[in-house]
Amino acid sequence: MLKNVRLRLFPTTTYNSLVWSAEGALALAAGENVVILVPKLTGQDGRQTDKKSPQFWHTVADMRQLIIDAMDEEIKPAPARIYSIGEEQGPGYAYQIAWSPLGMSRYRRCLLAVIATNHKMYIFEPVGHVGSDMRVLYDLTPLSFKFQDEKDADEKEKEIRTRLRSRCMGMAWSLACRTDENRWGESLIAVANDHLEMIFFRIGQGLQEMVAVLKPFPARYVAKYIGTRATHFKALRWSPWRQCDKKKYYAFLAYFWDGKAVVSRVTLDVEDASEPQVSIGSEPMLLGKAMSNLHPIFSVAFAPELIAGRIVAAYAAQLCTVVLTFDEDGSILSREEFENTFVERCSGLDFAPTNEPDTVIVQVLTSQGKSQIITYKIPTTASPSPSASTSTIQGIATVQGTDDAAIKDAPTEELENVQTTWPMTLAEMKQDYMSEYDITKAQVRTYGLAVSPLGGITAIAASFHPKVSLEYTTAHTERTTLIFGFAPGSSGCWSSFGFTPKGALPNPITTATEAVILESVALGKPFTSRIHAAISAVTADGNPRLEGITFTPGEDEEEFLAKHTLLSKPLNALRYTAALKRIAQMNHKYELLPENPHIIAASIVSALSVPRDLCTDADSKRILYSLACIGIMGLYSSSIILGLAESAFTWLSTHTPDEVRFDLELSIVAMRRRAGNSDELPVSVENGFVSSFERCVICAAGMVWRDLRIAECTAGHRFSRCAITFLPITDPMATRECSVCARTVLGADVEDQEVAGLAATVFGGWETCLLCGGRYWAEES
User: Fold this and answer.
1) Are 535 and 562 in contact (CB under 8 A)?
2) Whether this model's pTM surpasses 0.85
3) Which of 216, 244, 551, 751 has the lowest CB atom count within 10 Å?
4) In which region does residue 317 sit, left (phi positive, over 0), alpha (psi from -120 to 50) or beta (all else)?
5) Residue 523: pLDDT over 70
6) Radius of gyration of the chain (CA)
7) What is the mean pLDDT of residues 712-736?
């Protein structure tokens, strides 16, 4: 399991301050920064990660400059009945955070949304090295109230409504809704304002647009409760998307207000993949009520995947946790209440996977460190069996005693599992704190609970304090510990993201390789054995086949490239094999992994199969030529590759100047066909050949084709080759690097440099590393 991390800070709030991204980055809202722990993998910056190195890069989404700018901002005083201390005097500390799904940022990484205590909302993006700080991409606050509305008879009322709408009070980012036409999927972020409304945005790199407005309650409620009761929704959460028609998907957005937990149904029509249409159900559906409209419902959560084909939700209120399931048409199928003794605030509520079929674990954590673990069996009828699901309530004091009794005669494996569950770890750390300061009683303060992307690790943020003596805390003595452990009874992997002995594998589009490595390092042999079993089941059918890679006229070229490379199950088996080898290098000298010929062959065949009308620009012709040359030099045993290479050289001979000849390349193709696998070739320089098409940028001499990694001209000038196009890298600023295997490729975002044709298709279709599936990063200067 991962080692606990101690930070010199206190989080901003005791509610949901901890969020895990799909890349495996763990974010904690803490005052003027959002602290982000990014897994430190081998290959990043070319250095090994040994036992003495930290597990994480400690980075931040820095809000200090935003806070300084807010101090200089002149805010017109609001009328007394809508006065907000947070808006007018709040320092602008990070208060709520949420990660986007994979693929929303540059290089298909995750964006981070932050709501500050002054009710402003910002979107941060990763920049540069994976260990670098994030920067502000968008300020969504000005967009949050710019939509058409009913006309006001009173100008003063209009001003009040605009002021209330400009306050961002809560938000939630949906999971990705993926389709065959959009492999990265569509995602919506819902933002609640102070006027009992929610605004829906589409956010991405170069994209920020408002797509819908939800007004689930009449406007008269605002006038009725303003100044006396909250006029905004809390605890926003999204369910996974579910298909309801050929081109339509729906998801639930849960929230609570006035003592009621409700969901609104959001439908996404992707008939036009570039302009999806969003519609929202007119009436919210009631999930349940608190004891009164003055009592809170602390938190709402959804399982991140369908369990037994059903959407599963849970909400935590005082004295109980309620679990619900929904049938296919979106109606509530079952509702089961699990009592507890918690009156304090719930600081975290989340789901974890289990090995039992049609079963899921619900984890509840209170602000005082108490926990409720529910093992929930999905019912097949509206009346669940009383004995099908179980609930365990644990306080800090009882965890130690319970586990001591269980440990005495437990086998070693069971003992290890008991000791690494997070309730046990939390209890042990409390005992250590009391021993360190020689006190008889201590209290725990928790700030959030988060489950890792694949479901195997639960993280909680907690601090420890004396209970019967005074404590004087300064900034120097602030301590918060991130505790990692298993969820009691968890299996360690969600089925939709996981690996099974029957050959189920994720892919780099839906699951970040970085997250797979993080889970493998934390869970050890049980998890890596599962990966090996899945890989063995896939590779049992033999090597990947190239015959099925055929382009259909009218097919989207980028989707075609991704389908036959990044989404290919046999190739993904090879990628995860490479990822496991990278894990094995953790404590050894860093070495670049060898290229995989099957992955290279599939990439060459798919790229050479796209229409030639994409190859009219100079860069695209160079890529076409480069991939054809790699095919005839290293993969000549495939008749498919030889045929495509010959077609490429023939096309280039008629679409390049007359002085550029391809006779040598075509003669090599002919010799390969006659000789089969023989190595006898008409070579010119040390078993390679000199190109008349590809020239050195320094001396204009011909480039020699004989090495996958190094390009060299006849005059001796040497360049590294791009790992996907195999072009010489002559401009380091135009490169990206894989965060897992450290391979360097072209295609970085460079100002004033645009790509088109086959070049744009290749860089757009292969947006993660072809060898290992890792995300890319690029220097900014």
Assistant:
1) no
2) yes
3) 751
4) beta
5) yes
6) 29
7) 91
